[in-house]
TrEMBL record:
Its EC number is 1.14.-.-. Belongs to the TrhO family. It catalyses: uridine(34) in tRNA + AH2 + O2 = 5-hydroxyuridine(34) in tRNA + A + H2O. The keyword Oxidoreductase applies. CDD domains: RHOD_YceA (cd01518). InterPro entries: Rhodanese-like_dom (IPR001763), Rhodanese-like_dom_sf (IPR036873), TrhO (IPR020936), TRHO_N (IPR040503). It comes from Sphingomonas dokdonensis. This is tRNA uridine(34) hydroxylase. Residues 124-220 form the Rhodanese domain. One of its GO terms (molecular function) is transferase activity. SMART domains: RHOD (SM00450). The gene is trhO. GO terms for biological process: tRNA modification. It comes from the Bacteria. It is an enzyme of class 1 (oxidoreductase).
């Protein structure tokens, strides 16, 4: 099957003096090359996922690498048979990943990178505390064995969770290893732990996606699927599209078993959110789903179809 759309997930902590001045040239280049998705710009750097024709993605990435501090920008590429995003958003933000800790400096204070080939040895050590820094709905569909799940609804919750559980978590542990999807949340979470006085802090370089790409099936300890912030929803350990779909009401991944529940209605609700939706909300979601189906049948794009990155 031909897969004409190339996706590019990227982030870079750097120091932009005037991120607003960078916005228009990036947006113009993306529109010229039919590239869509979301890019966040802040004084601390850039973050996002975009998709489009291969030549268009190459042009945009080449431009981003000309920005201050972005020459070594790392990008995780994938292919998609359908268009992963339905619009372009270039947003100015206070943080490129929101933790609510404005004094952190991941450029200077992030933890030690651990290459995928060294990750298994580190997390197998009895004196290593392994923490999954992602949100609860992400952890639910896949993680590393033995990883602590903070059960957070938002990355903003992580600092309070750690402070409340610090003594219990660190009992008998000398090292803390953390991981996330692509690496960006671990840049901040390791900087946070170091600011809290934890000395030996490590994080998986490039995140789960880099680990799955670089680690053979025989050596991988990953269990389940990995949630991603595009229309694939989740990927398998071999980075193929997974078995989950997205609930359009609560934006959570819904697996095959949950889709058999009478509480699941495509485009309207899933078992996790069914009880929270009133009749008006359900009617509006059902109408949107109907309009999207009609648009697909006509071969056009429904303007309400989107998937925002957390």
């Amino acid at each position: 099957m031909t897969q004409p759309f190339r996706t590019a997930a990227l982030y870079q902590f750097t120091r932009f003096e005037d991120p607003a001045a960078l916005r228009a040239p990036i947006e113009e280049l993306c529109r010229t090359h039919c590239v869509q998705g979301t890019l966040l710009l802040a004084h601390e750097g850039l973050n996002g996922t975009i998709a489009g024709p291969p030549a268009g993605i190459e042009a945009v990435i080449a431009h981003l690498r000309t920005l201050p501090g972005c020459a070594a920008l790392e990008v995780k590429y994938a292919w998609a048979a359908g268009e992963p995003f339905h619009r372009l958003k270039i947003r100015l933000k206070r943080e490129i990943v929101t933790m609510g800790q404005p004094d952190l400096d991941p450029l200077a204070d992030a933890g030690t990178y651990v290459a995928p080939e060294d990750w298994n040895d580190l997390i197998a050590r009895p004196d290593t505390l392994l923490i999954d820094t992602r949100n609860d709905y992400e952890v639910a569909i896949g993680t590393f064995p033995g990883a602590i799940d903070p059960e957070t609804k938002s990355f903003r919750d992580f600092p309070d969770w750690f402070r409340a559980n610090r003594d219990q978590l660190l009992a008998g542990k000398k090292k803390v290893a953390m991981f996330c999807t692509g690496g960006i949340r671990c840049e901040k979470s390791t900087a946070f732990l170091k600011a809290e006085g934890i000395e030996e802090v490590y994080h998986l370089h490039g995140g789960i996606l880099n680990y799955l790409e670089k680690t053979s099936a025989a050596d991988s300890t990953w269990q389940g699927e990995c949630f991603v912030f595009d229309e694939r929803v989740a990927v398998t350990p071999d980075l193929a599209p997974g078995t989950h779909v997205l609930c359009r009401a609560c934006r959570r991944p819904v697996g095959p078993e949950a889709r058999q529940s009478p509480l699941y209605e495509e485009g309207v609700s899933c078992p996790a959110c069914h009880a929270d939706l009133d009749a008006d909300k359900r009617a509006r979601l059902a109408e949107r789903h109907r309009q999207e189906a009609l648009a697909r049948k006509r071969g056009t794009r429904h303007v309400g179809a989107k998937m925002d990155k957390d």
